[in-house]
Amino acid sequence: MKASLKILVVVAFTTVANVALANVDGANDEKRVEVRAQIFSAKNDMVYVQLEKAGKGKVYIQISDQDGHVLHSESVKEEVKVLKRFDVSNLPAGSYFYQVTNENYTLRKKIEKE
User: Fold this and answer.
1) What's the pLDDT at 1?
2) What is the reported pLDDT for 80?
3) Which pLDDT tens digit goes with each residue over 29-78?
4) What pLDDT is stored for residue 14 in this prediction?
5) Fold (CATH) for 33-113
6) Are 87 and 42 in contact (CB under 8 A)?
7) Are 62 and 76 in contact (CB under 8 A)?
8) Of 46, 55, 56, 64, nearest to 100 (Cα)?
9) Domain coordinates in residue numbering, the chain
10) What is the per-residue DSSP string for 63-114?
11) Tens digits of per-residue pLDDT, 3-16?
12) I need a surface site. Which of 39, 44, 52, 103 has the fewest CB within 10 A?
């Protein structure tokens, strides 16, 4: 009888612990935002940032010059698929950095303007 009671207590404790851990893991998954992004340039003085975001949370797009000065910054808030176009024809020749980030992901690409 005592052995059965011990087994029952162990099973109950294990079940409660697993449920508590499952809830913690689920909470972290809700905060995590999966992002897929591509950054590419075209010959027509356009730079494209393609972004597919699954989940809630902000994703930031930032463009800076070779000296680190931020030229453009914006955030994408909701679940979206976005294709952003940036006309760089007015920028002087040089190196520019395009970055897509959130708390779990960073994509940074250097693009040369001739």
Assistant:
1) 54
2) 79
3) 455 667 888 999 988 889 999 988 867 788 899 999 999 999 999 998 77
4) 45
5) Immunoglobulin-like (2.60.40)
6) no
7) no
8) 64
9) 1-31, 33-113
10) EEETT--EEEEEEE-SSEEEEEEEE-TTSPSEEEEEEEE-SS-EEEEEEEE-
11) 544 454 444 444 44
12) 44
Cα 68 versus chain centre, distance: 21
Collect all residues with Cβ–Cβ distance below 8 Å to 69 and sequence separation of at least 6. Answer: none
What whole-number distance in Å separates Cα of residue 73 and Cα of residue 63?
A: 6
Contact by Cβ (8 Å): 83, 52? no
First-residue to last-residue Cα distance in the chain: 84
Q: Which residues contact 103 (CB under 8 A, 6 or more apart)?
A: 33, 57
pLDDT reading at 109 higher than 90? yes
